[in-house]
Amino acid sequence: NLDSTADGLTIIFGGDVKIKQVWHIAGNGPDIDPADANYNLSTNYVENVTLLGTLTLGSGVRLGTFYCKKVKIENIIGEDSCAAVHIYSHSEDVSIDKVYIKGTKQNAGYTGGVWIDPYPFELGSYPKNINIGSIHIARAHYNGVYIENSKDINIGDIRVDTAGLNGLRIMGTICERVSIGSVSVNKCGANTTNNTSEYLHSGICID
User: Fold this and answer.
1) For residues 32 and 122, is the Cβ–Cβ distance under 8 A?
2) Are 146 and 104 in contact (CB under 8 A)?
């Protein structure tokens, strides 16, 4: 993990660099639950982190951000059965040039392609000012791209070849200023495991 001790760090990935375990760019802070052991932690952000080159996520591996500011990532490739990309609570000013996910693993927790939402903390910790040039999801077991309770989200292009539920889903009472240049969804609704009224199956879902 890259924590607050990594402020101002630049990493250049040359050649075929594969991440083989969960990698977080994250500081720390209080959880929503006062009973949680980390509730009284002081808030520390990791800031000004730059990742250049191509970062490849291996099988079962995810890249996540929370409690971070001013993070720049050039390219992310998720191998088949990866756990994809998650931009979580207190993520601010995060920019990614390109994300290409070949396929996500069939696990209830991490089956989407790119997720932007305030999990696991309170609504006031929504991600904001998130900029992604392009997203290509070849196959996602769940939603291709999922955006919930976030502000100032800018994505150039989204292409989803196959998604188990929705190609793109935007939801939440405080989702504001979401801008997407273009969206292309080829096939969705292939996940029959979650085929109940609780789950929607559509190319683009806004609720």
Assistant:
1) yes
2) no
Cα–Cα distance for residue pair 170/173, rounded to 1 Å: 10
At 50-98, the pLDDT tens digits run 999 999 999 989 999 988 999 999 999 999 989 989 999 899 999 999 9
* pTM greater than 0.85 (yes/no): yes
Q: Tokens at residue 81, please?
A: 């059965």
- Note whether 204 and 183 are within 8 A (CB): yes
DSSP assignment of the chain equals: -B-GGGTT-EEEE-SS-EE-S-EEEE-B---S-TTSTTTTPPPB-EEEEEEEEEEEE-TT-EEEEESEEEEEEEEEEEPTTB-EEEE-TTEEEEEEEEEEES-B-S-SSS--SEEES-TTS-GGG--EEEEEEEEEES-BSS-SEEEES-EEEEEEEEEEEEESS-SEEEE-TT-EEEEEEEEEEEEE----TT-STTS---SEEE-
